[in-house]
Amino acid sequence: MSWLTIAGMMIVTWVPRFVPLMLSRDLPLPRWIRRWLSGFPYAALGALIFPGILGAIPGAPLVAVGAGVVALLVALVATSPVIPVLAAIAAAALLDLWL
To answer: How many CB atoms lie within 10 A of CB 73?
Structure first.
């Protein structure tokens, strides 16, 4: 019975996403809409990451926010995604000792 429930929930969430996508895939969008939509992945990523940053170090949200800022600044110039992660870890360790 639970497999039927899961399959039903899958179909109910899949159909409203798939049908408009298939109906509008050949529809040319104005430039301003394409530009507006191009920011969505960054906004979604920020919405997923920011709450995790605030709760990363219990009792020390400033350390976590400081490490997040360091990661953001390093990510602007880094070519590899590993470098901002390592910089954030180092910043969190140093800020934890300092604060």
So the answer is: 13
Is the CB of residue 66 less than 8 Å from the CB of residue 93? no
Q: For 26-85, write each residue's pLDDT tens digit.
A: 888 899 988 998 888 888 888 888 888 888 888 888 999 999 999 999 999 998 989 999
Domain boundaries, the chain: 2-98
CA distance 54 to 56: 6
Its pTM stands at 0.59
Q: Which two tokens stand for residue 82?
A: 């590993």
- Give, for 86, the enclosing helix (H) or strand (E): helix 82-98
Spatial separation of the C-alpha atoms in residues 96 and 3, rounded to whole Å:
47
Half-sphere exposure in the Cβ direction for 52 (13 Å, CA): 6
Assign 3-state DSSP to the chain and report helix, strand, coil percentages, each to 5: 80, 0, 20
